[in-house]
Design goal:
Elements: E1 3-4, E2 11-12, H1 20-46, H2 51-65, H3 68-77, H4 81-84, H5 91-102, E3 108-117, H6 123-135, E4 145-150, E5 155-162, H7 165-185, E6 189-194
Antiparallel strand pairs: 1-2, 3-5, 3-6, 4-5
Length: 195
């Protein structure tokens, strides 16, 4: 409100301009929180938790994770997230099941190991080029990220993130096949497996 007449017969308002993207994001956050609240109520009914206990649990989850939806989302992505955050109780197993069944994570993450062994004098360069071949499968446009990390010779860890499991699996197969083929053709022995 900018100003109002003393007799309250008229007021002047200022409308703040909000971008469409920001409005959509805020609406999605609100919907996610509503959904998370419904899941928490469903959990409390299923394990016969009273309203006070449910509210207290919800507040504790928000304190640790920032939002209730984030608590469900993190739990859907990793098995022991709640236990690692210090939570205890019989409700954890049921909470995890609800999270996995009802929350779609924003991305899927695959991890694996590629073993590269060579006796070539140019072995370091061959290994580097092979790992770069794997990382070439990164596609920012399609939200696919592939990174390689040293894990102790002769093993290298591959971390892959994709928007869905089908894409992640396809990229995993393609990248490891291309890398191992390249490495073997240049005199090395390669092997890859998922964690």
């Amino acid at each position: 409100m900018i100003k109002a007449k003393k007799d309250n017969s008229a007021i002047e308002l200022s409308l703040k301009s909000v971008t469409e993207e920001r409005r959509r994001d805020r609406l999605q956050e609100w919907k996610n929180e509503q959904r998370a609240s419904q899941l928490l109520r469903f959990l409390s009914d299923k394990i016969e938790m009273n309203q006070e206990q449910t509210q207290e649990l919800g507040e504790q989850l928000v304190d640790v994770f920032g939002t209730l939806y984030t608590a469900f989302e993190e739990t859907a992505l990793g098995e022991n997230v709640l236990a690692n955050a210090g939570f205890e109780g019989d409700w954890i197993e049921e909470f995890t099941t609800l999270a996995v069944e009802n929350i779609i994570p924003p991305f899927v993450e695959l991890r694996g190991i590629i073993e590269l062994q060579t006796t070539s004098q140019e072995g370091i360069h061959l290994i580097r080029d092979t790992l770069l071949k794997i990382e070439e499968f990164t596609d920012e446009k399609n939200e696919v990220s592939v990174t390689c990390h040293y894990d102790g010779a002769p093993n290298y860890r591959i971390e892959l993130q994709a928007p869905d499991f089908k894409t992640a699996e396809k990229i995993w197969e393609s990248s490891t096949k291309a890398a191992i083929t390249y490495f073997n053709e240049h005199g090395g022995e390669g092997n890859a497996w998922r964690d």
